[in-house]
Amino acid sequence: MSEQAWYEQFRAMFTGLNRCVFLNSAGVAMVSEPVREAVTQWADLGQCVTYDYNAIIAGAKKNAAAIVSGTPEQMFFSRNTTHGIQTFILGYPWQKGDGVVIADCEFPANRLPWLSLRDKKGVDVKVVKSQKYKVTLDDYYDKCDKHTKVIAISWVQYLSGQKAAISELGKFCRENNILLVVDGIQGIGAAAMDVKAMQIDWLSADGHKWMCGPEGVGLVWASERALQIVQPACKGWFGVKNPFDFENFDQDYAPNADKYLDGSPMVLGIMAFNAALNMLLSFGMEAIEKRVLELSSYTINEAEKRGFEVLTPSNPQQRAGIATFKPSSKPSSGDPALIMKNLLDNNIVCSLRGGQYLRISAHAFNNHEDIDRAFYVIDKSI
Ligand SMILES: Cc1ncc(COP(=O)(O)O)c(C=O)c1O
Question: Using a 6 Å CB cutoff, which residues line ligand 1?
């Protein structure tokens, strides 16, 4: 298959692209045809007398594990990124005075739950100060001391698009007996992840951005040591060895990550998510990452050509699919809210973030023409 062919095939799976220019994979994913078919398939299955949803979930778990190069036994489906992070927080054996390090530019999903530990458990939550939504690993290291138990970080920062050097951080965490919790939502599906090589302990991400799934179904992957340390906050009927042995109240927890399950799984969402994962895996994450990086480079070049302030790092190793810039060359020119309105009026979907920054997030199914059309409207609006 030629390179040209694969991403055009990918594009053809998004029939909504006939109606708009979609440059917002860092927002909420556009629904693809495989996802639409999976939703219909779920409805058809629901009209049968019975169906084997355990097999459906087991198959989906294989794909969810594959997208992060993990093992299915060490993962479970969550309700969203926040839920995955909360499962860690509620299950960790906190002692008063334990330390957590986060940054001030984390999305609330990876910030609010940690901050709440200050009041609830007396945990010392130290906050790294970012510069224009970017952080350095040294700032994290400086905040750590012998009480630090956890570092929680986004793989890719939601506004600047800065991609953290997780492998380096993972090494530091192992050496210092710290658990590394990663919010992966802005990276997984856009870039190839290897949870084991990166030494991540707890990875949480909803499926509704770069993974092209629906909102409300995510994945969590846990390292061996995290599985030992983090206990389920409460026994759920799906979190035991045999959920269908209804009268057995002395059951042990399910082995591995299934112990964190609560009640009935969201089969509809899992089927839709699985269809999206299948689609991504059929093209391969390496090829997708290469293409995504090429498109974010192209966007950055276009913004730089116009003299715009670009927030996203130019080094491809420090970014994935997000490209964010201030759409003005002079402090007085360009009202970002008006530019955003003009883009939407022209059926071009991207995001305004931080009140002044345009975030263009092109997936591998996008092309240069999509980005050119956005810049055409931006140019006309300044
Ligand atoms: C970095 C990051 N984390 C998490 C989320 C979403 O969290 P949740 O899946 O809990 O809704 C977003 C965006 O919505 C995000 O950009």
Answer: 80-82, 107, 109-110, 154, 158, 183, 185-186, 206, 218
According to CATH, the topology of domain 3-29+285-381 is Aspartate Aminotransferase, domain 1 (3.90.1150)
Kindly tell me if the per-residue pLDDT of 332 is higher than 80. Answer: no
Alpha carbon distances (Å) from 205 to 89, 109, 216: 15, 10, 10
Which residue, chain included where needed, has tokens 């969203």?
80
Closest ligand 1 atom, residue 156 Cα: 1
For 193, list phi and psi in degrees, rounded to 5. -115, 145
For the chain, give every domain's residue range.
3-29+285-381, 35-282
- Amino acid letter, 306: R
Q: The domain 35-282: what is its CATH number? A: 3.40.640.10
Please tell me the distance between residue 306's alpha carbon and the centre of ligand 1 in angstroms: 31
pTM over 0.90, yes/no: yes
Q: Work out the burial of residue 205: count CB atoms within 10 Å of its CB; fewer than 13 is exposed, 13-18 middle, 19 or more buried.
A: buried
The pLDDT of 256-269, averaged and rounded, is: 97
